[in-house]
Amino acid sequence: MTPVSPKLFKLPDVGEGLTEAEIVKWHVQPGDTVEINQTIVEIETAKAIVELPCPFEGVVAELLVTEGQTVDVGVPIISVSTEAEGGVATPVSEPPAQAAAMREEGVPSAAESGMTSPDQPKRQPVLVGYGVKEGTTKRRARKAPNGAPAAPVSVPAQVPAQAPAPPPAVRPQAVDNRLPLAKPPVRKMAKDLGVDLTTITGSGPQGSITRDDVLAAQSGEAAAPAAPRATAEREERIAVKGVRKATAAAMSGSAFTAPHVTEFLQVDVTRTMDAVKRLRDLPDFAGVKVSPLLLVARALLTAVARHPMVNSAWADGPSGAEIVMKRYVNLGIAAATDRGLIVPKIKDAQDLSLPDLARALTDLTDKARAGKASPADLSDGTITITNVGVFGVDTGTPILTPGEAAILAFGQIRDMPWVHEGELAIRKVTTLALSFDHRIVDGELGSRVLRDVGDMLEDPLRMLAWS
Amino acid sequence: MTIDSVRGAPGASELAEPELIRLLTPEGERVEHPDYPLDLSAGEVRGLYRDLVIVRRIDREAVALTRQGELGLWASLLGQEAAQIGSGRALTEHDMVFPTYREHGVAWCRDVPPLNLLGLFRGVNHGGWDPAEHGFHLYTVVIGSQTLHATGYAMGVQRDGLLGTPSAGATMAYFGDGATSQGDVNEAFVFASVFNAPVVFFCQNNQWAISEPLEKQTRIPLYKRAQGYGFPGLRVDGNDVFACLAVTRKALENARTGQGPTLIEAFTYRMGAHTTTDDPTRYRLKAEEEAWKLKDPIERVKAYLVRGDLADTAFLDEVEAEAKQVAKELREGCLALPDPAPLSMFEHVYAEDHPLMTEEQEQFAAYLASFEEEVTP
C-alpha cells in the first residue's frame, strides 16, 4: 500500500462496553502534525472524561466531528494524512475492498474458522480487544432450515432467523401485539422523539429498527402535513439527565422537605463598589479577580460568625431530629455552566483571608465552568450564595441546597434614585434575598442575618468591626 | 492488659508514616540498613534502571493502545515499577510466582514476552505463556485467590522434600492492599503459617483498592498483620528498588531453606487509574498524587546513577531508545495479533477429552455452520 490516503481514527470503546461518548475538546486542528500517542481529543463517556492518544503519525487532515457532539463508538472522528510506510498495518488503514469486507463481520463458518492464520487479516468478533469496529455490524443470514433445527446453544445475539419480524407496516395491529425489534437505546430515542416504533420498518439485522430508521421516520413525520403528528415539531422533548437531573432531584427534595421563607432587602452598595475598586489596586490582590461577590461572600461569612445557627442542617439523629450547627463554613457559590447549575464549595471559607477567598472564588468557579470540579468540590456545603445579578435581574426566591439552612441571592447592582443623607441622589443599589429553612431559622434570626449582610455592604467598614 | 490499653488509637499516623526499610532515598542517596546489606555492581544498578524504564514504557504503550480501542482493558503499574522489578529480580530459576493482573514488571523479569500480556487484555488469548517454563503463573483476576494457589504450590514443594537443597524453589504470591480484606488471603496466611510453607507474600500496598483508601482496609499497618498469624512481616519502601530487592531476596532465601513464610508490604502508590475504566479524579485528590510524584521510583535510581558517575548521558539515552523500540514493536505486534477462531475457546479447558464439553463444542460448530457461506454487502 503506497498511496498516501488519510487514515481514520474511529471512536473506540474506552470502557467496558460503552456505546457512545461526547467530544469535549479537540487538542489538534487540521494541519497540525501529530505523533503516535499524542493526545488529540478529550471525550466524556458515561464513566469519565478521557484523553485519547492518536494511533497515527502524520498531519491532521480533518476533524470529522465537532465539540459537543455525541458520537457512537466506531464512528470516525478524525482523519490523519500519513507518510505511506513500509506496510505497517494500522487498524483502520485497510484498502477499501478489505475495509468493506470487514464491515461484514459475520460469524465465520466452521471450515473458515479452522483455517484462521496470522496472515489472514480479516477480523472476527471476539469478546473484547476487537479494535474499532464499524458502528453497526451485520451478520450473515442463517441458512434456511433443512430438517435439523439449529443447535440450541445459548448465544445472546441469536434470534431465530426463520421467524423474521414481519414488515410492521402491513401488520394487523390489533392481532400482533409483539414489540417491534429495536435495541433499548433506540427505543428510548424513539420515545423521546415521540416516534411510534410500530409504524417503522426496520432496516437493521433481523428487521430490527435502527437509530437512522427512527430519525428518518421522525423527519418524515415532521414533513407530513397531517396535523396530529406535528406535535413532535411544536414541542421538543429533552431527556432529563446529568446535571439537570441532579438539580431537579435536589430542588424538589429541598422544596418539599424544608419549609422555605424568603426575605428581601434593598441596599445602597455605593461604598462597597468603591471598596471593590480600591481593593483591586492593592498589591495583595494583584492577579486576583475582585468582584462585589467577594465582599458579599465576606459579609455573609461575618454574619455567620455572628449568628452561627444560620449555618446549620436539619438531621435525623439517633433520638429524633437534630439541628447540626456547623463551626466551619463550606461556602457554596452557584455557578451557571454549560452543563447547567453547579454549586462548588469553598471549604473552610471562614479561615480564608480576603485575597485567599478571592482566589478560591475564582479558581472554583472557573473549574466548575470548565467541567473539572471534582465531587469533593461539589459536596459538603453549609451555606450558599447565588449571584442572580449576573443574569440582569433584581432578585429571586432561591431554593435551599439540600442539607443547608440558608441561601443568599445577590441581585444586579444598578443606578437608582435613593434617599442619601436626606437628599435624593443616584446611588448603586442592589437587592438581597435570603431564603431559610423555617424549621431551624426563625423570622427574627433570618432578618438579623439579612440585615447584617446589608449593613456590611452599605458600609464595608462594618465587616472590620464585626470580624 | 486491659481492653482499653490494647485498643489504643487506631494508628492513623502509623498508616501514614510507615517505618520503612529503605536503602535508597527519594533523593537518590544510598543509605545502609543493618539487616539488609546490598552490594550491587554499577552494571547491576544500570540493569535495574533499564528494567524500570522499559517496564514503564510498556505500560504507557498499553494504556495508549487501550485508549485507541486496541485493548479491552489495562491495569497500569505506573508508580509500582520498583516494587515489581526489585522483587522480580530477587527471584531465581526454581522460584514460582503467582501474580495478580498488574504484575507486568514481574512478568518482564520472568521473561514473559509483553505481547502475551497484551493478548490477554485484547481478549485473543488467556495469557498464552507456559507458567512452568517461566516460573510465572497466569494472571489471576479474582482478587486474592492466587495466595491460596501459591500456598498450596509451596506446600507441594515442601512435600517434594526439596527445601534446603540447591533445587529448592520458593513461591511468591503477589497481591494488593485491597486483597488483604479477602477471606482467601487470610486462609492462605493461616495455611502458610501452620504448615511453615515456603511462600513469600508480597503485598504491593498502593494505597487504593479501586476507590477504597487504605484506612478502609485496616486499622494497623498491613505488615503487622503477619504477627497475628505467627510469621514475620516487614514493610519496605516500595518505590525503592534496592530495598525491595534486598528484602525479597532474604525472604525468598528463608523460604527455600525451610524457615517458613514472610509477608512483605511494599509501601507504594498507584499513580494511575485502577484500570483504564476507572477515573481516580472522582475519589482522590491531585495533591496526593503530586506528593507521591516526588517519591518516583525511577528518578531516584537515575539520580543515584548520575551522582555516583555510574552512568553517563549516553547510557540514559540508550535505555530511552531501547524502551521506545520495545514500545514500537509491542504496538506493531499487538495490532498484528491474530484473532482466535471461535472454536478455539474449547481447546485448553481440559487436558483430556471431556464428554460434556465435546457435546457443547459440537453444538457450537453446528451453530456456526448454520450461517450462509457467501457474504455480499
Automatic annotation (TrEMBL), chain B:
Query: Is Oxidoreductase found in the keyword set?
Result: yes
Q: Which domain of life is it from?
A: Bacteria
UniProt cross-references to InterPro entries, sorted A to Z: Alpha-ketoacid_DH_E1_comp (IPR050771), DH_E1 (IPR001017), PdhA/BkdA (IPR017596), THDP-binding (IPR029061)
Q: Which CDD domains match?
A: TPP_E1_PDC_ADC_BCADC
Bilayer-crossing residues are none
Q: Name one Pfam family in it.
A: E1_dh
All copies of the Dehydrogenase E1 component domain together span 52-326
Q: Which UniProt keywords apply?
A: Oxidoreductase, Pyruvate, Thiamine pyrophosphate
Q: Which coenzymes or cofactors are required?
A: thiamine diphosphate
Cite the PANTHER family for this sequence.
Answer: 2-OXOISOVALERATE DEHYDROGENASE SUBUNIT ALPHA, MITOCHONDRIAL
- Which protein are we looking at? Pyruvate dehydrogenase (Acetyl-transferring) E1 component subunit alpha
